[in-house]
Amino acid sequence: MSDMLKYKNLLNSFVDYGIAYSVTTKNVINDMYLRFSMGLVEEYMYERRFTDGIMGGVASKMVGIPNKIFDEVLTQYSNLKTKINNETSEIQKELLKLNTSTQEREYVKKVLLKNLESELDNITNNVLSTTNIIRITQNNLVDVVDKLNFVTTNEIDGKFTSKYGGMVKVFMLSASTELTQLKDDYTGSTPHLDTYIRDNISNTFTKSYPGGGEYIFFLHRLCTNDMVSFNFNGSYSAQIKEVLRYRNGKLYDELTKVDVNMVKGVRAQTSGQFKKLLTLLITPWIEYDLSNYNYRIKNNLIGGYETLVDSFTKFTTLYDIEYGTNNTSTEENLVMTELKERNNGVRDNNFNHKRVTDLYIG
Predict the structure, then answer these.
(1) I want to staple 213 with a disulfide (CB 3.0 to 4.6 A). Which of 28, 47, 76, 99 is the partner?
(2) Is 351 among the domain residues?
């Protein structure tokens, strides 16, 4: 009786890692939106570098990383800091419409600069952690895809038999009914994941958020509870309730805080007038943020993920595939090269082994 290799767990790992990669991407992008803004999501999704790879019978852009996002964030930061110091930010322009004192203008400038510095840290930390989480799940998915590609394309499996490396054992898989079924089932399951990646994960968002750097750094701290009474063109009551769970009006409250001495706030008269002007300024920013949620996040990332999960099924067949051993140099070199490239990384569309530069932010 011939020896057997079982590939049920390997194929189910593809399903598990495919779902994990997709749900992770969905969750971290949705979290970025809820805690910050649609503008930051646009910056993250707008310009990314993807590398092609083969997934079964599908050519897919599996590995994608943000390109120059830190440069973009730092540019927005530098430009906004200059504007705040020059009292030319949009928020300060509204304040200058009022009959304010030098102390009040200095107070507002101090508040804006303080918040800008803290939010730069928060945003860069979020972008870095988001990318790291996605990168880990990408690597897990790529590893199992490469293993399946090697098995189903070459009908060969193998491993190092020495912990010191160099020794290779080659399994020559028989062209049995089970191997054909493994190929067919693997190839049949890949389009579901590829569709989600192509339509949702690799989909770019147009970068057209209003307000520039103030939108990126300040909007999530201008989400006052008074938003429920803002005069929007559409109805966003459900979205408002959701974002208020994650954002706050800390900056809004600081900017309009009353202090008769104008050291830790502004005068009461200024506060009342400034609130009205701030409301008019940020209402279109908030509406832009809320109006894009359903199309980009709810229907796109979340809806697409739900479709993927409904399409993916666990495999019950054991795929008991016969094999023989072959220790000729040709087969040994093939397996050894494949195992090395899994660690070193290559740009080869036959496999998804990626170089470090393809998996890390450039």
Answers:
(1) 76
(2) no
List the beta bridge partners of residue 18.
none
What CA–CA distance (Å, rounded) separates 204 from 198?
A: 10
pLDDT digits (tens, 9 = 90+) for 51-102: 777 888 888 877 667 778 889 999 999 999 999 999 999 999 999 999 999 9
Q: Which residues pair with 64 in a beta bridge?
A: 50
Residue 327: φ, ψ to 5°: -115, 25
* Residue at 361 is within a domain: no
3-class secondary structure, 177:
helix
CA distance 257 to 360: 43
Q: What pTM does this model have?
A: 0.89
What's the mean pLDDT in 116-144? Answer: 91
Residue type, 176: S
Alpha helices of 155-257 — where are they, by DSSP H?
A: 177-196, 212-218, 237-243, 250-255
Question: Is residue 243 domain-resident?
Answer: yes
Pairing, β 320-325 against β 156-160? unpaired
**What does DSSP assign to residue 206?**
P
Phi then psi dihedrals of residue 99, to 5 deg: -85, 80
Comparing 40-49, 149-158, 259-268, 322-331, the range with the smallest average pLDDT is 322-331
Alpha-carbon gap, residue 264 to 204, rounded angstroms: 43
User: Who wins on pLDDT, 3 or 36?
Assistant: 36
Segments in the chain forming alpha helices (H): 8-35, 38-46, 69-85, 90-95, 102-154, 177-196, 212-218, 237-243, 250-255, 268-291, 293, 303-311, 329-344, 356-359
Give how many domains the chain has, as a whole number. 1
